[in-house]
Please model this.
Amino acid sequence: MKRITLRSLLALSAVAVLCSFALAAASSAVAGDAADSIVATPLNLDRRDAAIDRIVPAGAKLERVATGFKWTEGPLWIKDRLYFSEIPSNSIRTWTPGKGVTIFLQPSGYKGSAPYGGPEPGSNGLTLDASGRLTAAGHAQRDIFRLESLDPKAQETVLADSYQGKQHPPPPAPPPPPPR
Model:
């Protein structure tokens, strides 16, 4: 079994944070805003450990890849695309270079018949489990669930929704996947 080192976990966390910043920048853009004219900007990264160079190359730029979202979380790169949650629209979306954004799963959280009463109906954090299955923190559902295959129609398995008979509070984002 491969052991996860603190150094690798920190490096992966740094990448997740950078992806979150990129999505946050894209999410906060408003049409006509001066920020809309920013497409890419040099990334100023404090490289305290040389291991980060294997993940974030020198000269990397923070690039806006999409706009029009209110609140995104959970960036996760799988094969050729970026998966992320767009919480207010209750969806998991994908961004593919050259193709743009599409809805992967909707609803991704609250599935009730009555309108959801809060601002956070969708899933938030995303990760892959050791078998490569998409795992999500279901904010409004107050659970952690996974899709049994990388298909929006796949069986959904609830991994946790209560502890000692009490319903979970809305979950934080799950941890990043282990290094491979």
User: Anything to note?
Assistant: The CA atoms of residues 115 and 121 lie 9 Å apart. The radius of gyration is 17 Å. The chain has one helix and twelve strands.
